[in-house]
Amino acid sequence: MTLTRIIGILLIIAGTAGLIYGGFSFTKETHEAELGPLELQVEEKETVAVPTWAGAGAIGLGVVLLLVGGRKR
Q1: Consecutive 10-residue runs of the chain (73 residues): their mean pLDDT?
Q2: Cα-flanking dihedrals φ and ψ of residue 22, to 5°?
Q3: How far apart are CA 55 and CA 44, in angstroms?
Q4: Strand ranges (E), the chain
Q5: C-beta pairs of 46-52 under 8 Å, 24+ apart in sequence
Q6: Residue 50 near residue 23, CB atoms below 8 Å
C-alpha cells in the first residue's frame, strides 16, 4: 500500500468523523498560581467546530487520492 493510499484512507476517516461529530472539545490549562501551600489552577474547556464543507472536502480529497494511488504508472 502506497503512502498516497494511506493518506487517502486517513482523510476519508477524518472527514467522516468530522461530519458525524461536527467538532471536538479539549481542556486547556490557562492560569496557575501558587500562594504558599495553596495551588490554584484554572482549566477552560474549548470547543472547535468542524465545518460541513471541510468534512466533505476531506472525504472528496481522500477518494481522489485513493483513485490516483491505485493507478499503475
Answers
A1: 90 94 85 82 88 94 89 63
A2: 80, 0
A3: 26
A4: 23-35, 38-49
A5: 47/23, 48/23, 48/24, 49/22, 49/23, 50/18, 50/19, 50/21, 50/22, 50/23, 50/24, 52/19
A6: yes
